[in-house]
Amino acid sequence: MEKRNLSLGLPVTAEQWEIVARTAHELGVEEGFDWRPEACNEIELYMRPGHEPEGWQGWVAGGGAYGSGAVRAATFVWNDGEPFARNDLDILPQPPNVPQQDVERMQAAYEKWVHSEWQRLWHASGIPYVDAGNVEQV
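The structure assignment produced for this chain is given below.
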């Protein structure tokens, strides 16, 4: 799987970014997001057990299992109003541990999930959202 940045597909004003970032802070890691004022241009996105991309079950430890209950998957970056998602996964599915066709499926599922999580956060912020289409590689 490639680590690559993903365009979020639409421009965002500074005011909109602030609203979305504060919404991420209010939702917290329990809902898959984190934002801190000292890193105001970044919103972290987390995978959690039961809330991960299709085909990624088992990459995040569940309750009572060894390991983290949440894994930072990506960071939404402000980028002067042209936000993108940076892949922050520490461990990527790669052959020979994962068959190549599964790696490709997991990459597509990850990118779709990141985009849908951005939409979910945007909707939670209360700002009207126009879907700009598919996630694009930057």
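Interim note for the steering committee: Residues 6-127 form one domain. The radius of gyration is 15 Å.
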